[in-house]
Amino acid sequence: MTPPAPPRTPMPPPELAVSPRIAELERDLASGAPDALPRFWAEVAGEGTPLVEPIAGDLDHRVVTFLWRDAGTRTSEVLLLANCVTDRSVLPQSRLTRIPGTDVWHRSYRMSGKWRGSYQFVALDEPFPDPPAVEDANSATTGHRMWRMLGLMAEPDPLNHRRLPARWGAPPRSVAELPDAPPQPWAAPRPGAPRGRVETHIVHSGHLGADRKVWAYLPPDHDPNVEYPILVLLDGDMWGDALPIQSTLDNLVAERRLPPLVAVMPDAVDNQTRWRDLGCHDPFLGFLRDDLLPWAARRWRVTDDPARTVIAGQSLGGLTALYAGLRAPERFGNLLAQSASVWWRPDGAGEPHWLAGQFAESAPLPLRIHLEVGTQEWILTPATRHLRNVLGDKGYDVSYAEHAGGHDYACWLGSLATGLITLTSGWA
Q: Which stretches does the entry tag as region Disordered (predicted)?
């Protein structure tokens, strides 16, 4: 099965900028300063990358310079793969420039001071081919696959030690955040904070005809005699394993920003299975509703009240969270959708706002909904705003947020906590 793809809408090109630091280095090199290059790299090592510089008269933006150090003579091109900043459709702006005769490759952008995101580099022996001036469906698909293959060759920034783990054999990504990026106070473990525990289980699904691995979070001092709210968090292999959400839940509970709850996080298995299951797939919804939640209720005391049940997801997982509320409101009453793939529609054809149309055409349901999208998600941002307006016009209890970034776990990690706080506010 070939996974569907979002509409082929070219990415808006990022705004290029000139780095004062790079300009100074070039002047020093031109003047023959013998220590210019080692002094530059020593400063970079102390500050970390990317370089972030102010812009005179513009307090809302910064010059952000991505750097690659490569003394090898065979490297002919270095590409920046930055989430929702660069891609094949803006290839000229994705290419780093080498200062002749040095090991300095660089590319600078003017970016919002609130930006947070992940990125990688690809160093190539031969230049990556330019896309054709006029693309048809076949050439666009081929180019997209070639760009995705680059992602398997990419590597994180050796000069930046902040990493975002990946899954399914993909390389990790580097994380950057600018000075005004919103804090993520709940993500890191806190000394002395009571710790819950995470268990792994295997749950059989009659709907899927298969077993699924599930990560389960139990709050600190879990009491088997207490009935707990429940969170279903999709893409469990990320949140239960690669990018554990346990510290976030522990901290929120410790600060009384979230009631103690049980979280169940089903495995997405692999990319092809994920595309199938999280594409408004009724057998997967049946697994969540009829297999996973009853299994959790048999093992621990958890509520069957939809008003105290949250389903949360990102990207296709966000789409699934919204679909679960639409099709099973008797079980899922709180929907947390981060960068939901609301471009999706059955068979990849028809109404571009299919999900919004489903909500518009149905009677209002007893749902509480939190939507979030990145300002750089050029396809999803307008579609999510449209969905927000449709839900508001129907009278739904809907909250909405935008982050200065892209389609990125680096952003979702912090704002997942915000969504949970919002949806559970008022709970005892």
A: 170-197
Residues 6+ apart with CB under 8 A from 378: 9, 11, 12, 84
What's the CATH number of domain 20-177, 2.60.40.10, 3.40.50.620, 3.40.50.720, 3.40.50.300?
2.60.40.10
Strand partners, 110: 63
Which residue carries 């099965």 as its tokens?
A: 1
Fold of 197-424: Rossmann fold (3.40.50)
Tell me whether the omega of the peptide bond preceding residue 50 falls within 30 degrees of 0, making it cis.
yes
- Whether 351 has a pLDDT exceeding 80, the answer reads no
Token pair in block for residue 148: 């995705």
Q: What amino acid is encoded at 374 in this protein?
A: G
Q: Report the distance separating Cα 411 and Cα 338, nearest Å.
A: 10
At residue 67, the pLDDT reads 98
Kindly state the helix (H) or strand (E) to which residue 59 belongs, with its residue range: strand 58-69
Confidence of residue 151 (pLDDT cuts 50, 70, 90): confident
> How buried is residue 425: exposed, middle or buried, by Cβ count under 10 Å (0-12/13-18/19+)?
exposed
58-81: average pLDDT: 93
pLDDT at 339: 98
